[in-house]
Specification:
Blueprint lengths: L6 H8 L4 E5 L5 E12 L2 E8 L15 E7 L5 E5 L3 H30 L1
Antiparallel strand pairs: 1-2, 2-3, 3-4, 4-5
Length: 116
């Protein structure tokens, strides 16, 4: 059903994606989409991927996963910050990847059941 809808119609049914503009070290802005959040030991992590307008672009290669941690700046504003250690980043990224793989496996099982 969703494949016959325009992107605006899909947003109405599925909900608009939560988008964040991230700035890299060279000052370049890039739009990212929130795909999951995780709270562990009182720390909230955000998993983001580059936002794409055309889902077929996903087939063109590996998807970049960005993991950020929720924090506050000196003025008390909510911000997203890089994960401090490589070990922590790798551990949290793997949790997000496992959760995504599990979700896609479940979706495939549901699609197979519907086709039967």
């Amino acid at each position: 059903m969703a494949e016959n809808m325009t992107p605006n119609e899909q947003d109405e049914v599925l909900g608009a994606p939560e988008l964040y503009t991230l700035v890299d070290e060279e000052g370049n802005e890039k739009l990212f989409e929130l795909i999951d959040t995780l709270e562990e030991n009182g720390t909230v992590y955000f998993a983001l991927v580059p936002h794409i307008e055309d889902p077929s672009e996903l087939l063109n290669g590996e998807m970049e996963l960005v993991v950020l941690v929720a924090g506050t700046d000196d003025d008390g504003n909510d911000i997203l910050e890089p994960v401090e250690s490589d070990e922590e980043y790798e551990r949290i990224a793997q949790i997000f990847i496992d959760r995504l793989e599990e979700e896609y496996d479940e979706d495939e099982l549901e699609d197979d059941a519907e086709e039967s």
